Amino acid sequence: MANTAQARKRARQAVKQNAHNSSQRSALRTAIKAVRKAIEAGDKAAAATIFQTSVSTIDSIADKKIIHKNKAARHKSRLASAIKALA
Q: Domain 9-85 class?
């Protein structure tokens, strides 16, 4: 348990920040799932448009350092190659 006023404040801030970061990670997962769902449906045009909006979400979350930039790049690369593989 935090004993000083400073430590109590940091604990409060940590709870608030954790909730914010969790919601951001959830938005990331939702964006990735939306692209995967479009890919599974086989609609290349729809998948490409959803991918563009998802890239923006992935990049903004990486810029905020909620996920590492390399993880963001890996997600984008795998989704792009999956879209490209659609015939």
A: mainly alpha
